[in-house]
């Protein structure tokens, strides 16, 4: 069984099958309660090249995210990530008068900001017009001076050196060109400005790697083809490279893993669907009714979904019958270079030798 | 869209050199009252591109701003005018035009849409 590792053209699309519209397009069981500590789906490899491989259908992504937002106001996971990100603003003494918030979980950031970071002017940007509208409607009167803008993270319409802070919570992993987006963010920042982002990591749902296999098997069996379903996600080791490549100074990367327990695999699928992360990969079976369920897989056919859930349940249910899923969120921080930032000294410019220090502290030779 | 945002928007089409500022073509301008905060205004004064602000305000129908920002900004009438131009004038419908390429970015319901078409990337 061929493991699908990457979507950069190595996936073989065996057959393009035109889907017959299924009658029950939204037939999944209503989400039962599940304990969420925060999760997201996906697995894959990092984007190393900056050539613009069009992997994500951004239009599709745009519409579906707006749909999710209208249904689910408070997702614990998304809030937890946003909270973690915003907390970092309190860690530094600096204040950020103007801030740009890039799409992803805009609603969560707006709600949880609570005057941290000394932000006076906030600009919210997203590719989806509907998302922007919902955020604007959700804005309460006490919040800070906020402006709204529809724009693409990959083509930032912001003048260079104009914002003090750029925040993106769970949004950048959707860009086709992550390094490019980060470079644009760096350019838009003022010197000594901060870039704060949270993205999904490659270890996300690694545990559920087999779910992907299960899904592929089921799909192959039912629909006679394999569609790439995995969005490429950065690995932790690449996050640092991404930051330095974009030209950020003092880069920092840390990782958090969230474990979510679901009552059954169908619940997992339903949650991912409710989160509104759709399979926006360009190469997919086009179906009349697209039931795009999750980032990991697009279950176009109810039977395939059930088959997947059954396979997964039989393989991975734990002792108490719950399905655990691990999600990895990578937090990246970077600063726009400024004269006050410590720089690495030139090689050979050391004034004290280690052997001298060694002697001073009387260590064993 | 208010001028506080317009002052940082650029045209992001590849190859365009003169991307700031965008010319405003106003179809509908509304005035929304905003609390007057002199400290915020003084702070912003240092960062605003004055010429872009004046031209933007003129295209939205407000001509009271002086051509150059005064050196000593504590003058209250001036701050009031600045406040009005920067925060209270709101472009409801219209477009932002790139001076070099002529591309129009529409503004609908106070939200500018800076997304590029397929062929412009």
From TrEMBL, chain A:
Organism: Brassica napus (Rape)
Domain Methyltransferase type: 100-196
Protein name: Methyltransferase type 11 domain-containing protein
Entry keyword set: Methyltransferase, Transferase
InterPro entries linked: Malonyl-ACP_OMT, Methyltransf_11, SAM-dependent_MTases_sf
